Amino acid sequence: xxxxxxxxxxxxxxxxxxxxxxxxxxxxxxxxxxxxxxxxxxxxxxxxxxxxxxxxxxxxxxxxxxxxxxxxxxxxxxxxxxxxxxxxxxxxxxxxxxxxxxxxxxxxxxxxxxxxxxxxxxxxxxxxxxxxxxxxxxxxxxxxxxxxxxxxxxxxxxxxxxxxxxxxxxxxxxxxxxxxxxxxxxxxxxxxxxxxxxxxxxxxxxxxxxxx
Length: 212
Fold this sequence. Notes:
alpha/beta; Nucleotidyltransferase, domain 5; five-stranded mixed beta sheet; two-stranded parallel ribbon; 26% helix; globular
């Protein structure tokens, strides 16, 4: 039976994922007991409370990959990375990233969302401001239309690539590595350090005086 929990439960699972540069980023998500996280858009606030999702795709001679980062109301992050083993254009991988990111959001039961991507074409086509001329992209627009209906509030915004670096890095990483079919790769653990590794090699005081 599917369980429903508040967004605070998600935060508990991301307690080891702070965002400050001087802290450890840990994206492990032990979600065995969580299927969805329902969050009222206006709960505890007159304004809509919206989660965020950043997406990007990468396609080159090494392969195709998509990356998305879901950000909770408290600023905690949940990364999604998928390797695509079929021929893709740059626009197709961008659509794949957006679709798979939205699917991950819907599994959490989130109903209010801001979506950010660095592809002007995709953002304007999703919002129906631009027409689709490539017939291969039409099924993606139709699928996104169905996914959007599952949200109470959803908006799409363009941002420059340098502000979408995390999703871009995930997509680039996943398209470069070779994976065997069915292999599950654990979430990435990122540690930020401001000093060389040898600074950690501190010998204990021979007199074993306590540190202060």
